[in-house]
Amino acid sequence: MKSYVEQLHEKYGWPLKIHARGYDAYLIGLQPLVEGRVAPIYRFPGGDSLVDDRELKGGAESIEA
Which residues of the chain have pLDDT under 50? Predict the structure, then answer.
């Protein structure tokens, strides 16, 4: 059985981890927006934050596992 985060990763194509704002961040959920849209929520060292498409471009490839 897949976790909630793995399901989001598969459904929306969001990376499980990204490097943005100088930090590694991990996908933790989604935020419903208007008109049925959604945005990913990532956990940064300072707290959780919505991430826009430009920050997702680097994806997991830019992070050493």
Answer: 60-65
